[in-house]
Amino acid sequence: MNTMTLWHISGWELAALAVAALLVGFSKTAVSGANTVSLAIFAAVLPARASTGVLLPVLIAGDILAVLTYRRHAHWPTLWRLFPAVAAGVVVGTLFLMWADDGIVRTSIGAILLLMAGVTLWRRRGAGTEDAPDAVTTRAGRARARSYGVLGGFTTMVANAGGPVMSLYLLSAGFRKLGFLGTSAFFFLIVNLSKVPFSAGLGLIDGRSLLLDAALAVFVVPGALFGKWAVNRINQRLFEQLVIAATIVGGAQLLLR
Questions:
Q1: Which entry of 10, 22, 28, 30 is 20 to 30 Å from 59 by CA?
Q2: Residue of 26, 8, 6 whose CA lies nearest to 219
């Protein structure tokens, strides 16, 4: 499928995509859940399935900037524990995309995001403090990592919406702000790069779509720089509240479209 033949993008729609690219940069270096707004904008301007292929290279550009910014703060034991489950989720997501239409994709991802946000709010209300990142080595922690990993792989493959799921997992595991950003930066760079062959095989990425990506990637840089400036001015509690709020907004947008 040549995805670009499906689109007739106006100047206003291109401007909306540029704003979404700015938000991608900001989300990668400041508030991870904010990229659900970008997902919603891309799905509004472009066909929902095709939008995932266009958004993916833009996300990778943001991931590279995030890794360069927070590479010293990654928690690699958590990453290695997540990757097998995420790989299984990506495979399931690929199979899902082979038959699901746009409406099913939006509804499924929106419902998952709202469910995960609800679970996280319930867990945080019931506990005064969260576990330290090393607590994921317990049996319960490993089970939680596997469940979030599969959901993260599925949602990131289907709609590039794995950010909120993994954000909720990292918050539930007790990650502080910089550890959260460093761990998620490497996680999504590796996962998003691994998704490229699957997306290309499904016809969601082609040479012409990459031309649009090249234009939009320019807007990721100022968004990332602004996020790097802003994150030092956001306290931990506000940071966590913003991540959860962005997840809820993104999930609701997908369900209501």
A1: 10
A2: 26
Residue with tokens 């290279």: 57
Dist. CA 240–CA 189, nearest whole Å: 22
User: pLDDT tens digit string along 21-37?
Assistant: 999 999 899 877 677 77
Q: For the CA atoms of the chain, what is the radius of gyration?
A: 17
Tokens 């970008």 sit on residue: 38
Angstrom distance (rounded) from CA 112 to CA 168 = 12
Whether the CB-CB separation of 43 and 257 falls below 8 Å is answered with: yes
pTM greater than 0.90? no
Could you tell me which of 226, 246, 252, 171 has the C-alpha nearest to residue 21?
A: 226
Which tokens sit at 212?
Answer: 């649009």
The whole-chain average pLDDT of the chain stands at: 81
How far is Cα 66 from Cα 77, in angstroms, rounded to an integer? Answer: 19
Structure tokens at 61: 């550009």
Distance CA 3, CA 191 (A): 23
CB 224 within 8 A of CB 69: yes
DSSP collapsed to 3 states, the chain: CCHHHHCCCCHHHHHHHHHHHHHHHHHHHCCHHHHHHHHHHHHHHCCHHHHHHHHHHHHHHHHHHHHHHHHHHCCHHHHHHHHHHHHHHHHHHHHHHCCCCHHHHHHHHHHHHHHHHHHHHHHHHCCCCCCCHHHHHCHHHHHHHHHHHHHHHHHHHHHCCHHHHHHHHHHHCCCCHHHHHHHHHHHHHHHHHHHHHHHHHCCCCCHHHHHHHHHHHHHHHHHHHHHHHHHCCCCHHHHHHHHHHHHHHHHHHHHHC
